[in-house]
Design a protein that fits this description.
Largest sheet: 3 strands, mixed
CATH topology of one domain: hypothetical protein PF0899 fold
CATH class of one domain: Alpha Beta
Order of helices and strands: HEHEEEEE
Strand order of the largest sheet: 2-1-6
Strand content: 25-35%
Distance between the termini: 32 Å
Structural class: alpha+beta
Helix content: 25-40%
Radius of gyration: 17 Å
Number of helices: 2
Oligomer: single chain
C-alpha cells in the first residue's frame, strides 16, 4: 500500500509549509490526483486521518479532486482520453501510448489558521 507512504510525504509537505509560514493549524488540504497516477483516492482518505494525528493537520479535511488521464497514441497519432494505465487507445485499440496528463499528485491549496 504505497498510499501510506504518499500520505506521509503529503503530511511532511503540509508541516514544512506550516512551519515556514507560522501556521498554527491546517484546516483543509486540497490535492489533485491523476487517474493515471496509480494512487487510490479512497486509500489516501483512509491513511490521512491516521498519519495526520499529532500534527498541525490533525482533524483537517482532505479534499481530493481527480484529474482525467490523457495520452498520446503513436498508432493513430492523436491525443486521447485514457481512464487507466495500460488500457488500449479508445480510438484505435493500439497499445503504443505515452501518458501526458493525469499522472501526478499535487497539493492544490490549503486553508490554515
Amino acid at each position: 500500500m504505497h498510499e501510506m507512504a504518499m500520505t506521509e510525504k503529503l503530511i511532511d509537505v503540509v508541516e514544512n509549509f506550516a512551519d515556514s509560514e507560522g501556521c498554527q493549524r491546517i484546516r483543509v488540504v486540497r490535492i489533485e490526483i491523476g487517474k493515471l497516477s496509480g494512487v487510490e483516492p479512497a486509500m489516501m482518505h483512509f491513511c490521512f486521518d491516521a498519519v495526520a494525528r499529532g500534527t498541525v493537520a490533525e482533524n483537517a479535511v482532505l479534499e481530493i479532486s481527480e484529474v482525467e488521464g490523457n495520452a498520446w497514441c503513436f498508432d493513430c497519432r492523436r491525443q486521447v482520453p485514457l481512464a487507466a494505465r495500460f488500457e488500449p487507445c479508445p480510438r484505435c485499440g493500439g497499445v503504443n501510448l505515452q501518458p501526458m496528463d493525469g499522472t501526478r499528485m499535487r497539493v492544490k491549496e490549503m486553508e490554515v489558521e
